Amino acid sequence: MTASITLPSPAKLNLFLHIVGRRPDGYHELQTLFQFLDYGDDITLTLSPGQPGVRLENPIAGVPDEDNLILRAAHALARKASGELPGVNISIEKRLPMGGGLGGGSSNAATTLLGLNHLWKLGLGLDELAEIGLTLGADVPVFVHGHAAFGEGVGEKLTPALPPEDWFLVLKPRCDIHTGKIFSAQGLTRDTPRIRIAPAFEGDASRYRNDCEDVVRRLYPEVNQGMEWLTQFGPARLTGTGACIFGRFPTESATRIIWESKPSGITGFVAKGVNISPLHQKLTELK
After folding, report:
1. How many angstroms separate the CA atoms of 142 and 158, rounded?
2. DSSP of the chain
3. pLDDT at residue 1 greater than cutoff 50
4. pLDDT, tens digit, for every residue of 201-221?
C-alpha cells in the first residue's frame, strides 16, 4: 500500500453563472459552466497505522476544525467505511485565495475524498463519493467527477462539457466576499431565462454572464476597479460570487504580457483551462 501521496486540488472557474429561479428552501436554481484550471493547492495524505484518526498538520488560519472541509470530508468518508482504518496525517500547500469564487474549499474536500478512497482502498465509485461531497457543499461533486461540466440545480446536476481550453488571467482584488450576502442582495437577478445545454457552447459568448456581477461590483469597489482594468484587454468576468475575476486569452504569452502590466496591490495568477481535472490526471498515473 502506498504510504503517502501528494495530489493536486485545482481551482475552477464559472465561465458563466445564470440564476434562473429560487427554490422554496431559499436556495437558488443555477445554470453554470464549470472548467478547471491547471493551478491550485496541493494536499499530501500520509497513512499512520500506529496513530488512529485524522490529523491536519497545518490548519488554515481562521478556519476552525469543525468548518474545515478537508477534515469534514475525511470524517464523512470514514463513516462510510466498514472496519478499522489506519490513521492519516494531512498537510496542505495553500495557493488558492479563500473567498475567491475559485472553489478552493470544495476542491480540497474532493481531493481528500478521492485521495483517501485510494489510500484506504475503499473502492467507492465517483457517484458514491460525489454523494458524500454534496453533503459538504454544492460545488464538491464537480471536483469529484473531474470533468468540465454544465451545472444545474444548485450546481450539482452535471452534464460533461468540452469548452475551449484557453488561457486565463485570474485576479484577486483585496476583499473577501460572503456568498450569503450576495445571494440575499435585493438587486440580484433571479429570473434569467433557462438555456439548453447545446447553445451554451455556440455563438457569441457575450450572451452569457455572471448574474452576481452587478451586485458584487456595486458592493465591492475593489472588484469594480479590477474589472474596469481587465476589460481593457477583452471581456472580463466574475467567477462564482467572487472576488476573483478573469479574462480569457488564446495564448500563454499574450496572457503573461497582460499579467506583467497588472496594477500594483492586486494578486492573481496565469493558468490554463483544462477539461479533465489535474486531480484525476494524477490519480490515473497512480493506478
Report:
1. 7
2. ---EEEEEEEEEEEEEEEEEEE-TTSPEEEEEEEEEEEEEEEEEEEEETTS-SEEESSPPTT--GGG-HHHHHHHHHHHHS-S---EEEEEEE--SPTTSSS-HHHHHHHHHHHHHHHHTT----HHHHHHHHHTT-TTHHHHHHTB-EEEEETTTEEEE------EEEEEE-S----HHHHHT-TT----PPP--TGGGGSS-GGG--BTTHHHHHHH-HHHHHHHHHHGGGS-EEE-TTSS-EEEEES-HHHHHHHHHTPPTT-EEEEEEEESB-HHHHHHHHH-
3. no
4. 655 555 789 999 999 999 999
pLDDT tens-digit series, residues 134-177: 999 999 999 999 999 999 998 889 999 999 999 999 999 999 89
CATH number at residue 84: 3.30.230.10
Segments forming the whole domain that contains residue 79: 1-287
Active site residue 41: no
- Per the residue annotation, which of 41, 139, 172, 211 is the catalytic one? 139
Q: Based on the structure, what is the number of domains in the chain?
A: 1
The string over 213-227, giving b where at least 16 C-beta atoms fall within 10 Å of a residue's C-beta and e elsewhere, is: bbbbbebbebbbebb
Burial of 250 (C-beta count, 10 Å sphere; 0-12/13-18/19+): exposed
Q: Is 211 a catalytic residue?
A: no
- Whole-angstrom Cα distance, residue 280 to residue 274? 11
Give this prediction's pTM: 0.95
What pairs with residue 44 in β-bridges?
6, 91
Determine the Cα–Cα distance for residues 140 and 245; give it in Å rounded to an integer.
Answer: 21
